[in-house]
Structure formats: structure tokens, C-alpha cells
Amino acid sequence: MQASAVNPEEGLWLTEDKDGIFLIQPCGNMLCGQLVGMSYDGAVPVDVWGRSQCRLQMLTDFTPAEDQKWHGHILDPRSGRVYQARIWSPEPEVLKLRGFVLGMPLFGETQTWRRYHGAPIGANCKMPPSL
Description:
Elements: E1 11-14, E2 20-27, E3 30-38, E4 57-64, E5 70-75, E6 82-91, E7 94-100, E8 108-115
InterPro entries: DUF2147
Organism: Gluconobacter wancherniae NBRC 103581
Pfam families: DUF2147 (PF09917)
């Protein structure tokens, strides 16, 4: 697996809770992910440091591994904590993301994201109301 080729993990993904859309794309020879769609009322949500979460890179340094998964890190914008993570696409419309601490995937949580094919995302990363 190389990040320079099109990977099944690349593209727009709707989170499991349907409250966020991520764009996963190459960053050099790695994959990275930005939050490009959010469900919110009022002001654009900010992270623990007061930065807008719109287009915040939360998935970083994902490199291909022998287990056919990408290994990297995920940022929790509310706490500022960074966790180890794995992403993989077991089928074309599905992305699995597993976040964990202390290098122990056994003690983690896996989410299932779906490829996003919906309406255009609005200004300030506002998700369409129909989701």
C-alpha cells in the first residue's frame, strides 16, 4: 500500500453518529483527515485551544502497515488528547476507525463510518440538515 495511489480509505466519510464528515486524503506518503462537516447550532465549534474545528486536521500520520491497515493518530478536539489509531476499509462504502491508548488496540473503541455521498457541505463546515 502506498499513499501516492488511490486508496480505499481516501474520500469523504460520515461518522458513526452522523454528526461529522471527514475528508481523508494523502499528506505526502501518509494519509491525513480533516473535519469538513459538522452538525451544530450557533457558532462554529472550537477545540480546547479556541481554534475553529472547521477543517481541523484530526487524523494524522497514517502510514500503511503489514496488517492492511493504516496506523496513525487521532486528536480529540475537546480534550486536546491524541490517541493512537488504525483505519481500514473492509468494503468500498465502509471505513473502520479504532482509537486506543498505550499502544494496546485491545483496549480501544472501533467506529464504523460510511462513505458520504450526500448534499454539498455548507459554509463553515455546516452539514446539510437532512442527515
